[in-house]
Design brief:
Elements lengths: L2 H4 L19 H10 L12 H9 L22 E5 L7 H10 L5 E5 H6 L21 E3 L6 H16 L22 E2 L3 E2 L4 H20 L8
Parallel strand pairs: 1-2, 2-3
Antiparallel strand pairs: 4-5
This protein binds iron/sulfur cluster (SF4).
The site of iron/sulfur cluster has 12 residues, from α5.
């Protein structure tokens, strides 16, 4: 971004000072810094992760977008790229990692598996989309998405960052968005703690229905 791009619309800089002085807002400065230093977390789940690695290598070169610093720690990451099949066994770890990332933080769902289960959607061990648990900012279609598609998705994320305002950005507000996401429980099946009241109600309804059926007189048998 040049100094002229950093200028806020409506504030004209005299021609003799152009290229040296910018008149801008705090939001644009924040967003400028943030959009060019989105550090992804270094982890992958399945075949899509290979495409993610290719995107970071020299041919596609994520460094052009300020994203070359893939962090092995969630504490230093801004973007979680969910690259691959999300199994029920992995979801508690993914949510824990997300909770450990500092705010503001973003989630990119890379590929058909992460976005909706992909070819394994009906599998007993696969979650039909990471958005059942985490707030996804950008979805990237494909099986697998190409490095170009991942780059396009990350550019969309940068555009989203450009539109942020300090006064409305959810990370800087008080409210339920600030609360960590409860870690799902993996037992015989995966349970989202946020759905426990709904699950209890379904069980109670089923029990009531079974009781009502049992209380009905049995039909008479003909001789
Ligand atoms: S979307 Fe396709 S390439 Fe990506 S993890 Fe799933 S099966 Fe593999």
């Amino acid at each position: 971004m040049t100094t002229s791009e950093l200028n806020s619309p409506g504030y004209d800089v005299p021609p003799e000072m152009q290229g040296q002085v910018s008149v801008t807002t705090l939001d644009r400065i924040f967003n400028f810094g943030q959009r060019w230093s989105l550090w992804p977390m270094m982890f992958g789940l399945a075949c899509c992760a290979i495409e993610m690695m290719a995107t970071a290598a020299s041919r596609y070169d994520l460094a052009r977008f300020g994203m070359e610093v893939m962090r092995p720690s969630p504490r230093q990451s801004d973007v979680m790229i969910v690259a691959g099949t999300v199994t029920k066994k992995m979801v508690p770890a993914i949510v824990r990692l997300y909770n450990q990332m500092p705010e503001p933080k973003y989630v990119v769902s890379m590929g058909a598996c992460a976005s909706g289960g992909g070819p394994f959607k009906e599998g007993y061990n696969v979650v039909a989309g990471i958005d059942k648990f985490l707030p996804v900012d950008v979805y990237i279609p494909g099986c697998p998405p190409t490095p170009q598609a991942l780059l396009a998705g990350l550019i969309k994320l940068q555009e989203k960052v450009d539109r942020q305002t300090r006064s409305q950005n959810r990370w800087y507000q008080k409210g339920p968005d600030q609360v960590s996401i409860p870690i799902p429980i993996l037992g015989p099946d995966l349970i989202d703690p946020r759905r426990i009241p709904e699950i209890k109600k379904t069980i109670a309804d089923a029990a009531r229905q079974a009781e009502a059926q049992a209380a009905q007189p049995a039909p008479e048998q003909s001789a």
